[in-house]
Amino acid sequence: RSSESRPAGAAGWGAAVADSHAAPWHHRPVSLASLAQRTRFSRQELQLMYRGFKNDCPSGLVHRAAFREIFSQFFPLGDASAYADLVFDSFDPGGRGCLTFEIVIQGLSVICKGSSEEKLDWAFRLYDTDRDGFISKREMVQLVSAIYDMLGDSVWPRVHPCDAQLHAEKIFDAMDRDGDGAVTFQEFVLACRRDRDLDRELDCFDTLL
Amino acid sequence: MAAVAAWLPFARAAAIGWVPVAQGPMPPPPLRDEDHKSDEKLIISVSGRKFVTWRNTLEKFPDTLLGSDEKEYFYDEDSKQYFFDRDPDLFRHILAYYRTGRLHYPKNECIMAYDEELAFFGIMPDIMGDCCYEDYRDRKRENNERLFDDKDSDAENAMPHSTPREKLWRAFENPQSSTVALVVYYVTGFFIAVSVLANVFETIPCGVEPGTNLSPACGDRFSVAFFCLDTACVLIFTVEYLARLYAAPQRLKHLRAVMSVIDIVAILPYYIGLFMPDNKDLSGAFVTLRVFRVFRIFKFSRHSMGLRILGYTLKSCASELGFLLFSMTMAVIIFATVMYYAEKNQPKTGFVSIPAAFWYTIVTMTTLGYGDIVPSTIIGKIVGGVCSLSGVLVIALPVPVIVSNFSRIYHQNQRADKRKAQKKARLARIRMAKNASGAAFISSKKRAEERQRLQETEIGGAECGSIRGSGAGDDSGSSADRREDVFELQHHHLLTCLERTTEREFVELDQLTQLPVCSSQQQPQPASPAAGSDASIAGADAELSPGGPAGCFKGRWRRGSREARTYLPGRGRAEEGEELNRRPNSRYQAGPHSSSATLGQQQLSQSRPTRTIQTRTTISSCTNRPGPRAPERIAGCDWALLSTWFLLLMITSIVCCTH
């Protein structure tokens, strides 16, 4: 089990030196067989993903900063750190600040190989950062801004600062049927299913490993 | 970290969050390739050592050789692996870059070898990790400096066509380049020494003047002699200065150069004194001007490398020296002030003012302690003690920096000189080896041609022996060589085409010695067999070392046998002979050569008597000598010394005559 993080400015120079010699924050995942059993990934897929995971995070733990970096590599033109934070938080409800391989794989198992309901459930949790069961307008704006941040500058038509806000408000107003300023899960699902082929669209994010 | 395929599912899954807010439908996913293998291991064989890695690992960096399709060029179908004919030890580091994403520099590897590997595999050295980057940069810089040094000295030797002005400039800048330059070097050195010594000796009192009790200075007693000596020196210096000014490529810049300023300062006082009226009022000022004659000693810095290095060191340590000065000043002011106020009320004290206390402080801090000013109060003595202790510290601080800088630059220079000295020998040995291999190649080519001709004309073996006495040409070998591969044959054919094109012929040197010798040896081009023909057309061999005077360091060099005017076929330029390095063992010379002006003679490729080659627009004037060896002439070095002494003798006699 990973050790708890010590407060940063606790004891100064001596403690900092001692920390560097302290036991590394190491985490070894459960066996491959049990993980293959528990999740919907095959052994080969798990092997491939763990090799990449271990390569980038030798200690077996992904911290927020490392996760941001990894995520940003897929979006080189823009700034993906805000969206990465949202994703990180959606995987890490306990707020421990780091993810283990099991958490990642279990989360991915749901998202990649789950039903549309499960995927939407995850998406809802992604949007609902304060975990109160409702999506407020502020949360919607936050998410849409994070998405727009990933674009960067070299897009056309150019991104205006208020574009994200307008987009978010439009979506929010469309979702919020009863106009109470909060979107529940049912409203969310209804809005998503409305005039789009949700299942196909959700499936198109499957990755072939 | 690189975008590994392993994290892609995560990123794509996270994109599900965009679907609810998307304003349009998502595009369909890319086609699924049923044959897609998730990941496979690649075998890379580097000179036989096998490295195995995942394909994904290599594809992390798609703009390198291993990460792109370029590696398919090296795919060996038979063994199903990628084969690279490179150094396996260095490949380890390349592969580590793919595995960890960080490039490291192994400290025990040669920087050039490592750089070549990086260039081959398409990896930029700039992405090196911070742990190794500084070390890499340092060694790279050191290497570049060394190459630059060598190239610099080569470049100045490789100018075939120079105007007299350029020749003069080169003579001044590099005394080794010709005899005249060396003579000038020694003569000016001698006169600088004479001038400085005269300045010193004319102030010594020499002998008591009869009739009085005075012993005047030598300068007053033999004023005429000293004046003549001074005149001679100034004449030489003036001529030298004007010559340098004329020869300088950029006269204005040369005027501002330090050495030029020193030259002016050295000779101006004389002219000022010459043209000034013999006025008692001004003569005091004139005497002061004579002080500037001591600057002549700085002219020695052209003659001494160590002095130049010292100057360069001081310049490069300017900040440390500045710091030293600043801290000394601060300390001096502080201590002088305190001493003054401690001692000012003592009777008959030396501390009459703070500036007067400066002198005491400086003398104390540098631990000189003349004793002309001493403190008498207790406080003054305490402060004086502290002053001397701190003085030692303040001075000791920047000195090691300066010393280490000087040491580093001096050793660098020593190494550069040693390299230059060794380079000639090294190059000579390399050239001999290359000549041997080039000659062997040409003789094998000749043999092949013989065999072909034999086969064409069906002449018997007896005539074969009469045509040529080539190196190893005998018929018994021909059957064994019949299996010459196509490559060799085509190479020979290429050289033959070259011969036809230029109407020349490749010869071997042992043929050459039986022929009229028209010129003395010349340094051959770096002749690898393939390059042997190309080198003859290529440009000047920049590695050729200058002639005789440099040989002073190695003992006597033999001069070339002749100084005939020779024609450079194909280049059309005649060169005067000068002394050369002799190459007794060089065996192969291709036809035309180019050379630098100072080296002079070229070797001609002679036509062999039995094989008449078409046209030889060659030797314009060349005398037939019975044997290849010429009478030895006195080495260039001796010429320099001889002429120097002769000149000095002449000048001394002139001076004596005028007296």
UniProtKB/TrEMBL annotation, chain A:
One of its GO terms (molecular function) is calcium ion binding. InterPro entries: EF-hand-dom_pair (IPR011992), EF_Hand_1_Ca_BS (IPR018247), EF_hand_dom (IPR002048), Recoverin (IPR028846). SMART domains: EFh. It comes from the Eukaryota. Gene3D superfamilies: EF-hand. Residues 115-150, 163-198 form the EF-hand domain. Keywords: Calcium, Metal-binding, Repeat. PANTHER family: CALCIUM BINDING PROTEINS, EF-HAND DOMAIN-CONTAINING PROTEIN. This is Kv channel-interacting protein 2. It comes from Macrostomum lignano. The lineage of its organism: Eukaryota, Metazoa, Spiralia, Lophotrochozoa, Platyhelminthes.
UniProtKB/TrEMBL annotation, chain B:
It is a multi-pass membrane protein. Residues 446-456, 572-582 have a biased composition (Basic and acidic residues). The chain crosses the membrane at residues 180-201, 221-243, 255-276, 321-342, 348-370, 382-403. Its main location: membrane. It is found in: Membrane. Residues 441-481, 518-628 are annotated as: Disordered. Keywords: Ion channel, Ion transport, Membrane, Potassium, Potassium channel, Potassium transport, Transmembrane, Transmembrane helix, Transport, Voltage-gated channel. It holds the Pfam family BTB_2. GO terms for cellular component: voltage-gated potassium channel complex. InterPro entries: BTB/POZ_dom, Ion_trans_dom, K_chnl_volt-dep_Kv, K_chnl_volt-dep_Kv4, K_chnl_volt-dep_Kv4_C, Shal-type_N, SKP1/BTB/POZ_sf, T1-type_BTB. GO terms for molecular function: A-type (transient outward) potassium channel activity. One of its GO terms (biological process) is protein homooligomerization. Residues 586-604 have a biased composition (Polar residues). Residues 519-542, 605-623 have a biased composition (Low complexity). Residues 40-139 form the BTB domain. Gene3D superfamilies: 1.10.287.70, Potassium Channel Kv1.1, Chain A, Voltage-gated potassium channels. Chain C. This is BTB domain-containing protein. It comes from Macrostomum lignano.
